[in-house]
Amino acid sequence: MQLQALPVTRPADLQVSWRISRTACGPFERNEAVDTGKPLADALGEVIFVGMVTTRPSLLERVRDKDDDDSWREFFAIYEPFLTSVARRFGLNDTQAAEAVAEVLVICVQKLPEFQYSRQRGRFRGWLKTVTQRVVIGQWRRTQRGINEVPLRGEIEPSASDEVWDDWDRAHREHIVSLVLSEVRDSVRGRTWDCFDLHILQRKPAPEVAEELRLTVNAVYANASRVLQRVRTRCLELDEELSDD
User: Fold this and answer.
1) What's the rounded Cα separation, in Å, for the pair 15 and 201?
2) Which residues of 90-119 are buried (b: 16+ CB within 10 A; e: fewer)?
3) Cβ contacts of residue 172 below 8 Å, gap of 6+?
4) Which DSSP category does 6 fall into?
5) Residues in a beta bridge with 122
6) Cα separation of 131 and 3, whole Å?
7) pLDDT for 141-191, tens place per residue?
8) Local structure of residue 200 (DSSP, 8 states)
9) What is the C-alpha to C-alpha distance for residues 184 and 31, in angstroms, rounded to an integer?
10) Is this prediction's pTM over 0.85?
């Protein structure tokens, strides 16, 4: 895969409740919408074999193939805006951030085909943090030396430095989940998403949502659960979970 400028679609800003991994979706966990006028058991029986969500190989597994251009394009589209945000928060300007992000992505292209995932050794986001931290700080130091025209000793990093790296895991999770929510929202029908949005994200009681959308309470539970399962599945494909682990 040759690293090149690729179009990036940034997810819409979404108001997200980060408690969605712990939110009860009713007395069942099914992942397909139901006919809103039928009893729950009958409706679920009809949808068990209709479009059940399956997990694709994770993105990290797919980019082990350097020739899988589609997966690498997806990887760049996900991580270019995230890494740019990190670099800018650290204190780099647009040009410096772009150079740092390009360097990190080159390292990813070189190293990810050999990347061995292990929970004991840490998640991918931990490895990416280490690489990004080294590259971004290196870029900042080179910039400071250029400004001062003499080698600096004991350079003081920007005041935001510790906050940026301490906040890495939360920022990574929010970026992935926001992207996934935007993606899933575009893939489901309106009232199915509305059930999830109102009941899970906005935490409205199911009876209230049912009255607002003119659905049965069971339909609200079923539709919300369906979307939540899709969100969880897609997050796992991107090596992220909704919990804080």
Assistant:
1) 8
2) bbbeeebbbbbbebbbeebbeebeeeeeee
3) 82, 125, 129, 240
4) -
5) 118
6) 17
7) 888 766 554 444 445 555 556 788 889 999 999 999 999 999 999 999 889
8) I
9) 13
10) no
